[in-house]
Design brief:
Blueprint (H helix, E strand, L loop, with lengths): L1 H11 L3 H6 L8 E4 L6 H8 L12 E3 L11 H4 L3 E3 L6 H6 L6 E4 L6 H10 L4 E5 L3 H13 L5 E4 L3 H7 L4 E7 L12 H6 L2 H18 L3 E11 L8 H10 L3 E4 L7 E3 L3 E4 L8 E8 L17 H10 L9 E4 L2 E4 L13 E4 L1 E7 L2 E4 L1 H6 L8 E4 L4 H7 L4 E2 L6 E7 L3 E8 L2 E4 L10
Parallel strand pairs: 4-5, 4-7, 5-6, 7-8, 18-20
Antiparallel strand pairs: 1-2, 1-3, 6-15, 8-12, 9-12, 10-11, 11-12, 13-14, 14-16, 16-17, 19-22, 20-21, 21-22
């Protein structure tokens, strides 16, 4: 750590003593409200606490020190918010996502930035989230499902293989690159133990390689944002300088945000003194005119049994009708998904409507998480503080209105969080075992 601190002193100069003071204080804790399910004001009301806004995105809020156990809250289970270090929300703000965009998040686990992008797309366009490490990709998928994002593809692939097959398809690409994690030292002692100058340099080379893969997926005229949660110049400014020198068709753009400190004229640095643990982000533009070529529509109609099952659960077929059966799973692909790619490890595209089990179809948790209560044929709503919702999240059978019969969504203050099967005033629990709260 002595060598790290010497480097930070050189980087910060007169501000170094102020930087050190933050290592004696609690880390910045934050959350980002998921606007697909909840408004910031409503979340604060349901939590019963004042939530101070962060400067990094309008949905970001600081979490008070006395608030603990948010991960077990029914509001977390239903995807009302994502627990996220405050400055980690900065990169997506530089990306400038607009509705209808095709967006690639190339190094996406555990999913904070991907779910932030998904909320901005609001069901339009397409989100492709990739994570090379398979177990981390599974966590990414779980978070995208929890936050109710239906227009996402989740893959676990090497960046060079993926981007070569997706060449020129995306309006915006985010590279939140693996790094030495200097901005996470206060919460991650493992990152401290692994740190060395040699590790910093090896990270910088890997980051440049990832950027050179990511550029292939970008359309002419598209925007790519590079970000890290580290402070070293080698992994930040020097990576950008090397990339621009090797790629004259890219330029560094004004970030169009009012937080952080400028470096390289237009890139952004955030230190603990600025309200977050630490981040770097740079917005790059690929030269050329961004011409959108419409994709040929791909619509595979399902047979009557599947459509009848769909209509028995949801009103108006809210996820569209771009069906595909993969193994025993009935998938509804994103409306804009039409990729002819081979050999790419895709964990999921869109949502799982149901699973074929013997002679019947069983509904799937992901479909209910992506639905609003008004989309569901049957729904039983509970208050966040109710005994019923606590019991449901423990996996227990709960009481419901006697009139409800069949597969029934369960919601928390009008935000879906799963489903069960209702009969005779009782609801048999279908909440996935791996997601349940433990007593």
């Amino acid at each position: 750590m002595n060598e790290f601190l010497t480097r930070m002193q050189s980087l910060l100069g007169d501000e170094f003593p102020e930087f050190l003071k933050y290592y004696e204080r609690p880390e910045h804790r934050g959350l980002r409200v998921n606007t697909l399910k909840c408004a910031p004001e409503r979340l604060a009301q349901l939590l019963g606490v004042e939530l101070e806004p962060t400067p990094f995105c309008k949905e970001g809020r600081y979490v008070p020190e006395n608030i603990q156990g948010l991960g077990n809250s029914p509001l977390h289970h239903c995807g009302a918010f994502y627990i996220q270090e405050p400055s980690a929300t900065s990169a997506v703000e530089l990306l400038g996502v607009e509705k209808g965009d095709f967006v690639l998040d190339l190094c996406a686990a555990p999913g904070g930035k991907s779910t932030q992008i998904g909320a901005k797309l609001d069901g339009t366009g397409l989100l492709w989230s990739n994570e090379i490490v398979r177990n981390r990709a599974n966590i990414l998928l779980s978070n995208i499902e929890r936050m109710g994002i239906s227009n996402a593809v989740v893959s676990s692939e090497r960046p060079d293989r993926l981007c070569a097959q997706l060449a020129g398809r995306f309006d915006r690409v985010l590279v939140d690159a693996p790094c030495s994690g200097e901005g996470m030292f206060r919460k991650n002692t493992e990152a401290q133990r692994e740190w060395s100058v040699e590790h910093v340099k090896s990270c910088a080379q890997r980051q440049l390689n990832i950027l050179n893969s990511a550029k292939l997926a970008l359309k002419d005229g598209g925007v790519m944002v590079y970000s890290t949660c580290t402070f070293s110049r080698e992994e930040n400014e020097e990576v950008i300088e090397r990339f621009l020198s090797e790629n004259p068709d890219f330029s560094l753009e004004e970030p169009n945000v009012d937080f952080g400190r400028r470096t390289l004229d237009h890139a952004v640095r955030i230190f603990p003194m600025d309200g977050g643990e630490g981040h770097f982000a740079a917005r790059l533009r690929k030269r050329g005119e961004n011409i959108s070529y419409p994709l040929p529509e791909r619509r595979v109609k399902a047979d009557k049994e599947i459509l009848d099952f769909y209509d028995s659960l949801f009103c108006g077929r809210p996820f569209g009708e771009n069906f595909e059966i993969i193994g025993n799973k009935i998938m509804i692909l994103p409306k804009n998904y039409n990729f002819d790619i081979k050999g790419i490890n895709i964990l999921r595209a869109g949502i799982v409507l149901g699973e074929l089990v013997k002679n019947r179809i069983e509904p799937h948790h992901s479909a209910f998480m992506a639905a609003k209560p008004e989309d569901c044929i049957l729904c039983s709503d509970f208050d966040v503080d109710s005994d019923e919702i606590r019991a449901f999240l423990h996996g227990e059978e709960i009481g419901v209105e006697a009139s409800l019969k069949g597969y029934c969504a369960v919601s928390v203050n009008s935000m879906t969080t799963g489903f069960g099967k209702a009969s005779g005033g009782r609801l048999k629990n279908k909440y996935p075992k791996g997601l349940r709260n433990l007593r």
